[in-house]
Every structure is written in C-alpha cells, then in structure tokens.
Write a structure and sequence with these properties.
The chain has about 180 residues and is α+β, with helices and mostly antiparallel strands. It has a single domain, classed as Alpha-D-Glucose-1,6-Bisphosphate, Chain A, domain 4 (2-Layer Sandwich), CATH 3.30.530. Helix content is about 30%, strand content about 35%. The chain contains 5 helices and 8 strands; from the N terminus they run αββααββββαββα. Strands 1-2-8-7-6-5-4-3 form an 8-stranded antiparallel sheet, with helices on one face. A hairpin with a 2-residue loop joins strand 4 and strand 5. The radius of gyration is 16 Å and the shape is globular.
Length: about 180
C-alpha cells in the first residue's frame, strides 16, 4: 500500500462500519489479543478447504495490498506462505507455523499496517464441531515495540478481524445454501 498508516487505518475503519465486532480479550500499550467466532452450516473439512484453498474468494478485497483478493494464497504447511502475488508486486502477509487439517491453522506475522510498523503476531483459525455445523474462531495476538500506544489500533484491528471471519462465514453459508 502506498498510503500512510493513518490513512490506511481511517479507510479500514470506514469500510468496517456495521460489521460484527470481535471480542477484545486484552489490550495494553504494547499488544493486544482479539477473538471472534461464528458457526457455519458446514462440516470442518469443508470449512478447512475454503479457508486454505479459496482465500481469494472470501477475503475482503479492500484488505489486500493491490485490491484483488484473487492474488492471495495460503500454503497449508509449516513454513508456508500466506502471500499476495501480483506479478512483480509481492507481499508475505504471514508465515504458516502450525497445521492440523480440519482443526487449526496458525500463522505468524503482522497484518496490514502492523507489518510496516515492525509488529508481529500469532493468528489462529480454529475449527470445532458445533450444533448446526462448525464453529470457526479467529484469534489474533499482536505486539512489539512501537512509540505508539497499540490500544488505539485495537478498534480497527477488531473490525477488520470481523470482516475477515465474516467473509469466510458468508462464503461457507452461500456454499451450503447452493447445495440445498
């Protein structure tokens, strides 16, 4: 992105209005933890497949570096890349660090403007059997040194996490509806 961090945060906040909010588990000057979950009417294998193989179909395009979610990919293996490749323009959003297919995908790195701020985090997608399908939980803990108080970024990250999980949940609900 060629805009400043402040402009990115303002844009994200404007785009995220009206979406479900994630739960802020904790927030201090140098870090935070956010967790959000939704139940979708599909089994865990279907949810997993969409998570890792269809990221370009459900990830919000407004939260990519070059405005095209189809350029995103997740390599579901230790050391794999959650990357965005647009020809010579390339970004490693996160590195896959743990894979338990149908259960957990863990990645590390700083998403969006957090990356440029030198911050790091652990993000987990957790899948569990639930009444009516699968509960998908998106958990993100980020932190590190910054002269800024990270608590001021939490509302924006909170909203963006809701958009990301909501995109996957909506995609899976549409798939389930189409099969009926």
């Amino acid at each position: 992105m060629r805009t400043s961090t402040v402009a990115v945060i303002a844009t994200v906040a404007a785009l995220a209005c009206g979406t479900a909010r994630a739960e802020v588990k904790d927030s201090v000057a140098n870090g935070f933890t956010i967790e959000n979950s939704q139940v979708v009417p599909v089994d865990a294998d279907t949810a997993w497949n969409a998570l890792v193989n269809d990221v370009g179909r459900w990830w919000p395009k407004d939260h990519t570096w070059w405005g095209d979610a189809s350029k995103l990919s997740i390599q579901p293996r230790a050391g794999g890349c959650f990357c965005e490749i647009n020809g010579a323009q390339q970004a490693r959003h996160m590195t896959v660090t743990f894979v338990d297919p149908g259960n957990t995908l863990r990645m590390t790195g700083g998403l969006g403007p957090l990356q440029g701020m030198g911050l790091d985090g652990a993000l987990e997608w957790r899948l569990a059997k639930a009444d009516g399908g699968t509960r998908i939980t998106l958990w993100y803990r980020a932190g590190g040194y910054t002269p800024d108080d990270l608590r001021k970024f939490v509302p924006v990250v909170d909203q963006v996490q809701g958009l990301q999980l909501g995109g996957l949940a909506d995609y899976l609900r549409a798939q389930a509806k189409a099969k009926k």
